[in-house]
Structures are given as C-alpha cells and as structure tokens.
Amino acid sequence: MSTPSRRSQRERVEESSRRLAEAAIELIAEKGYSNTTAQEIGIRAGYSRAMVRERFGSKEALLEVILRDYEGRIDVPREPDTSGLQRALAPILALRDFAAEDPRLLRAVLSLNFEALHDHDVLRGRIRAWLVQLADGIRKAVVEGQADGSISDHRDADEVGSELMATGIGYAYAWILDPRTVDFEAVLTRWHDLVAARLTGSA
C-alpha cells in the first residue's frame, strides 16, 4: 500500500494560520482583546507560546489578518459591470453565503466585532473604521443606483445606508445571542428580497 503524501509547507502554514486565527477569536470572545495574550493564542491553537510571533509577528498583526479576511468577504464589490443596486445588496448576500459556508467562524468574528464595545484600544478603532468604510460603500452604491436607474428609491443615500447597517447589526446580534432560534440564512434571504423590493419600488 502506498502511504499518503506528506502535506506541503504551504498547507501546513495555512492550517496553522487558521488554527491561530480561530484560537484568537475564541479567546477574545471569552476574555476580551486587551486580556488576551499572543502566548495564550498559541497554546489554545495547540502550538508553542511563540507561534503567533513566529507566524504573524504580533497579536495586532494576527487581528489585522482576521479582520481583513472577514471584511474582504463582506465588502461592497467594485466591479464596473454591476449596477448600483447589485453593489448595495451584495453585503447582504455575502453575509448569507458566509453563514452557509462557515457559520462557526462567522459567529466568532461577529462576536469579535461586538467585543469592540468594551475595548478602548486597537480593536474599537479598527472595527469603527471598518463600519464607516462599509456604510460609505453602501451609500455610494445607492447614489450610483439612483443614477443608473437600478434604484428608484430617492431617499437620501445616507439614510438608506444607515438603515441597512443598523438592521444588519441587529440581525447579527440576535443570531449570536441565540443561534438555535434564528435561521440566519433565511433571515438574510428575506431581508435581501425586502430591501431589493423597496429600492426598486416594487414593494
């Protein structure tokens, strides 16, 4: 019998990076960002105390990697061949797809976002900047949709963007609080359809 081939260096790096990221999210959700050390993250992930420093350089750098990956999956797309309506709705669909593909990781990252309420250092500023960026992307998409005719709702784009952000945060919080009673994918699908109908005037 042939023996399974050994994993490549790249595969080992990817696995260790993911395990460190998951351990960091879990610990921050349990203890808070400021109370979580790089050494604890390495141990929780099953590695040495120095693994975070060896792989990422610092706890802050690991956090940046985690948030960039999450934000890249949820952000408003910039493809020129999509309508303003499609771009405005894209974060809802991306969040739904994320929930379907990796609900455990998404709940952990969303919990990390809410942890920013109790953190006055790096985490709060980082999350605030991301939310501002996302809201601005939605606002611009609404303005573009009103200009290209894909959105017939002529309310102020800032109002629409703020409403979408607040609603999305509320749904996320309800899901994190009790995932057994909230079908997040179904909720996001219904919300997407409702927003699409309102923005196109078909509601």
Automatic annotation (TrEMBL):
DNA-binding region: 37-56
Entry annotated with the keyword Ligase: no
Statement: the UniProt record of this protein carries the keyword Metal-binding: no
Protein name: Transcriptional regulator, TetR family
PROSITE patterns attached to this UniProt entry: HTH_TETR_2
PANTHER family according to UniProt: HTH-TYPE TRANSCRIPTIONAL REGULATOR BETI, HTH-TYPE TRANSCRIPTIONAL REGULATOR RUTR
Pfam families: TetR_N
GO MF assignments: DNA-binding transcription factor activity; transcription cis-regulatory region binding
Coiled-coil region(s): none
Gene3D superfamilies cross-referenced by the UniProt entry: Tetracycline Repressor, domain 2
Domain HTH tetR-type: 14-74
UniProt keyword annotations, A-Z: DNA-binding, Transcription, Transcription regulation
